[in-house]
Amino acid sequence: MKIAEMWKNFTSSKERTGKAAKVLSYIVLGLIAIAMLLPLLFLVNGSFQPSWQINAVPIVWVPREWNSVQAGETGRQLLLWWAKSGDVKEAEVIQIGARRYVPVVEPSQVKEALSVSKDQLSDAVPTDLGGIKLNIRDWQSPEGTRQVVALARDAQNENNLIVAEAAGFQQALVQYPLDEINKAKQQTNLVSGLELNTRILEDGRQVLVLGPESELTVVGSPEIAKEAELIQASRLGKKEYLDVGQTQLSIYSVEDKPEDYRAVAIVQENWQPLLPQSLVAEQGFIAKVDQLSEEVQPLVFNGFNMNVRTYTPSDGSAPYEVAVLIPGSTEFLVISTEFMDKLYAAPISDLVEPGSINLGTLTYRVQEDLERGDTIIPSALVGEIQDLALIVPSTSVKNAYDILPSSLERSTHVKLTITGYKRVLSLKLSGTPFWRFFVNSGYVVLMNIIGHFVSCTLVAYGFARFRGRGKNFLFVVLLGTMMIPGTIVILPTYLVFVHLGLLGTMVPLWIRSFFGNAFLIFILRQFFMAIPYELDEAAILDGANRLQVLLKVILPLSKPALATVGIFTFWWYWNGFLDPLIYITDSKYYTITLALSKFNDLYSRSAGYYDRILAGAVLSLLPIVIVFIFAQRYFIEGIQMQGLKR
Amino acid sequence: MVPVTKALKMKPKRSKLEIKETLEFYLYISPWIIGFLVFLLYPLASSLYYSFTRYEIGTTPHWIGLRNYIDMFSDPRYLNSIKVTFIYALVSVPGLSIVALSLALILSRKLRGINIFRSIYFMPSIMPLVAISLAFFYILRPDSGPLAGLLGIFGIESPRWFGDEQWALVAIILINVWVGFGGQMIIYLAGIKGIPAELYEVAEIDGAGTWAKLWNVTLPMLSSTIFLNLILGIIGAMQIFDLPFVMTEGGPADATRTYMIHLYNRGWKEIQMGSGSAMGWVLFLIIMVITLLVIRSSQAWVYYEGERK
Questions:
Q1: CA B279 → CA A14, A484, A518, B44, B293, distances in Å?
Q2: pTM (2 d.p.)
Q3: B145 in helix, strand or coil?
Q4: Which residues of chain B make contact with A13, given a CB cutoff of 8 A?
Q5: What ipTM, to 2 d.p.?
Q6: How many residue pairs bridge chain A and chain B with CB atoms within 8 Å of each other?
């Protein structure tokens, strides 16, 4: 009885440990599965993020789009921010101005300046002193620790800083706009016998400039954007300041506007006039300098300046007005002014991925991926870059207020951005469109599959079904070649192709497959051997020759082995990198892996391109992952064969 | 008499058939033979010759004896590339095997959903290394990369990975394990499945527990598979190229400049074909020596069924 009970306890505890082991196994498997999937998830997730987000610190995990408002009818987007108070989002705003400030103090307020060795000073810590931040350091003086502010380096002694006690000028501290300080004249002044650089302000006051700089941003309701218009920056008149809270907003009078009109310049930036690429290609033409009037007339089309001249056709027809798209010394790229209603422009920061088109002696630049809304407009860059200002009437910014930049947070909404994909697909690498690299890789894979199908089946059939002197020896040689590290022949094989004159073509990427592959021959031969020889004999009795036996009997029965051959070939050559790197020089033959690597070399340092790099990587994974999902068992069986061949 | 003449008559006929079959055999395998001669034997032989010459493409090879080999071994960058490759192989090959084998052992238990786990583990091995390199380039960025963000949640500061000489190779080894263990695991799984169930039954009768069975049955029966994976792993690791080339081009400060990257630079960037060939041969010899050493040692620890001792 007792023994039976103990036995029962024993088995149940054994069951329990069994269960625990099972749970533990699942936990381990699950954790590793997460570790395997996480990088892929990061990659895909990143590819759906706009580039600002990919580079954001701290990290924004979910793909988001930055909210923006249209600036009037200008086509310029203004980004939206949340103005926060503490952690509470108070209002959605746009930025309309900013001014930087530094704390200054009059030298007369400095009671005592001392030259102190840097070793006795701690690092500067920005500390609030009566509402103004000041870089305060601890000085281990002979009389104990004192809080001091560094005024300047000591010109006499490199290792010393000139400091003054912070408590001394608390009352006299003022925040002063940095742009005014930079304009002010410098003067050397003696304070406690030490030379200090001071600035002389407009009102004649002399000040010492302290740190740190601070910034106050002026924000306002997104409504303001509605009244925005774009003008030539040269039309902005005298600058005045409008007090907004603790800071000031620059306002300008504007040429050709009423006397009392004042504008706030939200953005001032360079714009590039553009025309549709196809229009320039079809209607633009080259005019000789003697066919154009000397007189140049600056005219405004859709708000942008263009130079207009009169063109006299050489066939004697009536002269007409043309806009100069690209000036030259003897030749000009021009277009009839009747097309100038198509003129538009974009801030040059929006213009990335440029290309160029040669036309006679002139080259004009084109833009493949200027984005407007959801469409990509291929554009030609024409005319001259113009300094434009986005202005709103100062009356519309009444409710604007000042805020610390740290209290602003991007206003976004969750969205998978496909900009990266669009851009990578419309991208050109040394003139070759990106989709072409997929076609090239597909071509290489296809040729290798054909090559392997033809050569490997013939050779495997030979080894499986024929008797011949030296067969066993040759089979051992075949297996032996699998053990030779592939890289040793890379350089000499390269020289073979150099001698054959095939360098720079795609032939070296596939021709070798027409001469078999040891591993695939081995797989096929094993499979053929398993097919009963009686089937061959029956076919031969029916009058088939040996090749017909292979085609009509063996191959139809070998579909799984052929699938393995095809899939392995696809796998190797879709992913292949070293061969394309060595053999392909012309971008129009780049395979996808080579193109990605070149693309990465060119752009990995410019943060704005990460969306494209990630999207390109995801696209290159797609074909092989799809094949894997549908034909997993062939991958796995093939790998197992690799393990069994020993 | 009649049967004898018949037999005499038949013999030449059969040998004629034999000759015909041999011819046919050679005809069928001729693609491989041509490929073997043109793309393996000739390149090997010619590169052995080139390795004793000074040869820049477009010029004629100029015999310089052992000069390439001597120069090579007095080049600190070359010696460094050997060191980097050895460190890489010494850490990543056993690392891969241990991870792959442990997971294969867990997966070989009769659990539900094994196939899903197997697919997930294997998936990275099928992907282009270039794309994986780009992905990790982004993931491992020290400030704004997702891994840094993840570590940040736990209050850990991310290493600078490819900006740091000490971490760059570590990153490459880790990525390589992530990519490669799935394939090895599948080979081990097949090996474990091939172990006859009777062996476990017998062991159980002898009172063996889980560990004893693992130690006395599974591992010895798997030793030939482990051996094969080790050899394939070493051959692969000594030739590592794609991953460090795309991610770091051998930097920072040559910390990930592997043998093949060095050879690539010598051969294709500096177009020194003679010197490149010599390096190819030395790599070949290094791999052969290591493989032979492993095979030698295998006699002590690899168990072959039906082998007589």
A1: 59, 15, 25, 13, 21
A2: 0.81
A3: coil
A4: none
A5: 0.88
A6: 267
